[in-house]
Amino acid sequence: MKVIDERKLKEKFIVGTEKDFYRNIKKYDESMIPVMKARGYTCIRSAERTVAFTFGEFCFSRRKWKRGSEWYSPVDEWLGLDKNSRYSKELIYQIAELSTMMSYDHVVKVVQMMYHVKITKPTVIKTVKFADQLRNQYEEYQYYQEEVKKKDKIKADIIFVEGDGVFLRVLDEENKAGYRDFAHFVIHTGSKKIEKNRWKLENKKSIMSISNRHAREMVLDYLYQNFEITENTILITNSDGGHGYTPYVFKEFAKVLGIKRHEHFWDEFHVYKEIDQTYKGYSDDLKNKLYQSIQTHDKKLLRTVLDTTESLLTSAEEENFSKFSKKFLRNFQYTKPLELRGFRYLPIGIMESQHRKITYRMKKRGMIWSQTGAESMTNMILLSKAGQLRELFFGEWRKEYQEYKAAEELTAATIKVRQNHIKKDYQFYSLKKRW
Predict the structure, then answer these.
(1) Please, are residues 166 and 186 in contact by the beta-carbon 8 Å criterion?
(2) What domain of life is recorded for the organism (predicted)?
(3) Which residue, 363, 406, 20, is CA-closest to 182?
(4) Side by side, which strands form the sheet with 56-67?
């Protein structure tokens, strides 16, 4: 028996889908005739429109209505179509979602293979730019919301903030490729076990920006707007101590928010990594004593180990070891174990795993990004992984945002009109020459 080609079978089903689609369009368009007449609209003509949906591309005809200078198409509104758009909102969203998983060229191939819709790479780029525009609008909307509504803030005894940089290859102002450090901060309130050997961070918020300063400002804004800070709130921070992630950066968070108890940790993974790299080739006894000085938080023992090591150095090794020694002595207080600070367990040291979702998409196959494109994609990936990208495209916030903007424009226009009707008495003063 000959096996049917599934692609041909699918084509038959697509034909059936087309007939159903056109039948539904016609039925809805005709059902709106008495409604539109009752609203005072006049049917001017029927016009064709071609739109790509997730179930195929269709050219369909629908009635265009007019009332005064206002044009209206019930079918377009029913389908949720924007004026002059060739793609449905759902398809645009799915293109955006796919772009967080694969290259733009692969998105084009997948859409054509799965949806039978032809798009181009510029369409994907335009979609990513649109998503970034929505993200900027959402940030603005949150400020409107903060002014209008007092939302319930998160109540947590401990707030965790970690920070680290992700190096991505981007083009500079002269169009030359180079690596830039993208600031990445993660805020959460602890972890919860969801299945065997799998934990989930609670109230997690990831923040990324090409500007470390801007990222820090966003962290402070988010903490201020979303957390209830009390006298008993504890801030736990963790980093590798690199530029932009020093203890003083995190101390500033505690100071601005008025948090009295702040515990900063020098990331354990990076501490032991530096020890292993520096003491490679030296006796295990020295290295183990250095570990012991950290585990018991014994600075005297640390000095003894460092002095002993220094006596064994060659002249070529002295400069690098001097930097290592000074760094450890300066930051030793941040290596104090959590048990000695009164904690049994803290979910810290998460940044490497949090970076993975970014690096998997953006550092493969020698990718080079524009600075704007890289920032847009990093934030889209974070939203997608948090399950919030659909909300960005279809959430109720978009309607509320437009209402806020309309009210803002109306207020500005009203003020301008009133000012135009106020008689103004301008007094001009002569200017004396000064020699």
Answers:
(1) no
(2) Bacteria
(3) 363
(4) 42-53, 56-67, 70-72
Residue 87, token pair as written in the block = 């793609």
Token pair listed for 320 = 């690098």
Mean pLDDT score, 266-290: 90
What is the amino acid identity at position 45?
R
Name the token pair of 12.
Answer: 């038959």
Q: Kindly report the number of other CB atoms within 10 A of residue 110's CB atom.
A: 16
* Among the ranges given (33-37, 88-92, 311-315, 340-344), the one the predictor scored with the smallest mean pLDDT: 311-315
Three-state DSSP class for residue 271: helix
CA distance 241 to 218: 20
Beta strands in 56-105 (DSSP E): 56-67, 70-72
Distance CA(237)–CA(216), nearest Å, equals: 13
- Is residue 227 classed exposed, middle or buried when 0-12, 13-18 and 19+ CB atoms within 10 A define those classes? buried
Q: Which two tokens stand for residue 148?
A: 């209008």
Give 352-404 pLDDT, tens digit per residue: 888 888 888 888 767 888 889 999 999 999 999 999 999 999 999 998 888 88
In the chain, count H helices and then E strands: 16, 10
Q: Which residues pair with 180 in a beta bridge?
A: 168
Measured between alpha carbons, how far is 160 from 190 in angstroms, rounded to an integer? 7
Strands (DSSP E) along 233-341, which ranges? 234-239, 261-266
**In this structure, are residues 228 and 256 in contact, taking their beta carbons and an 8 Å threshold?**
no
Phi, psi of 48 (to 5 degrees): -90, 155
Q: Which of 94, 17, 107, 108 is closest to 57 using CA atoms?
A: 17
Residue 7 CB contacts under 8 Å (≥ 6 apart), including other chains: none
